[in-house]
Amino acid sequence: MSLTPRDLGLDRPISRRDLFDGIALASLGSALGPVPAARAASTPFAVRGDTAEALSVPHALRDGRFWEHAGAPEPTGERYDLVVVGGGRAGVSAANGWLLRHPSARVLVLDNHDELGGPRPPVRAAGPDAVMCDAESFGADTLVTTASPGWIGRLPIAEAARRDLLRLHEEPPDWFPGLSAEAKQERLAELTYSRFLREVCGAHPDVERFCRTMPSRDWAYDARAFGAIDAWGTGYPGFGGLGLDRDKPSRYNSPTVRRDWHGEEPAAAPALDGRALLRLSSPVVSVRDGVSAATVGYFDGDRVGTVEAGAVILACWSAVVPYLVPELPEERRRALRQVVRVPALHTTVRLRDPGAWRRLGVERVRWTGAYWCATEFAPPDSVRLVATPCRSELGPDAGSAAGRRELIRTPYDVLERTIRDQLARLLGPVGFDPAGDILEITVNRRGHAYPPEHCRPWHAYHPDGPFPADAARGPFGRIAIGGSDSVPAARADAAVLAAHRAVAELAR
Q: What's the CA gap between 28 and 453, in Å, rounded?
C-alpha cells in the first residue's frame, strides 16, 4: 500500500536546505510550510561529504568563473617545506611520508572539505542474508531470507527463472567447451556479468533482474557495468562448470579482486601526523612552480591567500589538477582528464527503537531495483543505507559522470522520501513507524567518491597498460601528483601507494 507523506513523516520538523555552488536555492521543506526552529533542532537532517559548499570553488574553477570575482591573490608570508593539496588518505599519507624522511620539516595540508579523511573505500563485508525483491523490479515487495534452504523457490520470479537460477547455483555447465582455460578467461573479460547471464547462459530475464544489484554495495555500480571476469573471481553464480583454477586469480581480474583473492587486508586509513598543519574548508585554486619556490593559492572564504612551498604534492582528484596547474603540458592534461571517479551515496538513520529491525531477523538486505540498493543494521540503534548513483548501463566511466550530475541535482527531500519509504516497506510489517521512529538522518553524498578501478571489459589496456596515469604522472618541477587516481591499484590501497610514490619522486 502506498504511504502518504504524512504516513512517512515528511511533515515532521526537520532542518532542510538545498545549496548549489554555495547558494541557497530554496527550502526543501517549502511545500510543508515553515518549520519552528525549536522543533527542527530535535530531528536533524545533516548532509556531509561533497556538499555544494565543498565543491563550489572547484566547480567555479572548472567553469572559468572563479577568477572573475576572486580578486588578486595576497601573499600570506608563510613558507613551508611541503604543501599537500587534499586531506584524504593520499594527502595524509603524503604528509606523514614526508615527515618520516624530514622530521623537522614544516608541512601544510589544505582541503576543501570541512572534515578530514575523505570517503572510506567500500568494505567488502559478508554478503546479504536477505534479498528484497522489490516492487521496482517485480511489481511487489517480497523479502526472502537467502540463508534458509529452498530460498530460490520462494522468489517472486517466473518458474523458468527459478529453474535457471537454481542451475546457475548448483549445476552450471561448461559454457565454453573446447576452449583452454586462458581462452575462457579472455572470453569472460569481454563481457559484463549481465551480458554473461543473458547471452552466454541464456537465462530468463528475471534472473538478470534478480542478480543485477549483486555488485552494487561493494563496487558502486551494478552487474551491467561489473565485468564477468570479476564476477567469476568474486564467486558469483554461473561459473562452476568452466573448470577454471580456483587457487589463483586471472590476470584479467581487477586489482581489488586480485588482492581479495589472496586475503590481503587493505591499507589502514592513516592518521595525520600532529606535526603537520591542517587547514580545512580551504580549497586550493592555483599551484605554480617558481625560480626559488612553488606558490600555492587557496581560498579561505574571503580572499585568495598564497604560501610558498619547497615542494607540492597534489593528493587531489586527477581531473582537478589541470585547473590548478595550467602550465602542465597538454598531453598530461588530457591524461588527467580521462580519470573518472565513481560517485557514492551513504546514509545513516538513527532509530528511536531498534526492536523492529531485530524482529525482522536479518542483518543485511539487498534490494533488487529500489533507489537504495542495500540496508543493514548498525548496532546499537542505526540503519545504514547505500545507493549507487552511477548509470551502470553506460559503463563505469560514462555512467559515473552521468550519475554524478544527477546526484548533485537531486534535492534532499527526494533522498529523505526514498529513505523513509524503503524503511517503511522493509520494517513496517514488524512494527516500524516511519513517522515516529526516526530520530536522525545523516546523508553523505560523494560525487567523486572512489578512484576508478581498471577493469574489463571497459578498459582494454588492463592489465598490460599503458595506463592513462602513466602519461599523467611524474614530477613537474617542485610539483608531484600523488592522488589515488594516479596508480592502477586496488581502491583501498591506491591512495597510500600514490602518496608514497610522489614523496619518493620529489626526494630524488
A: 35
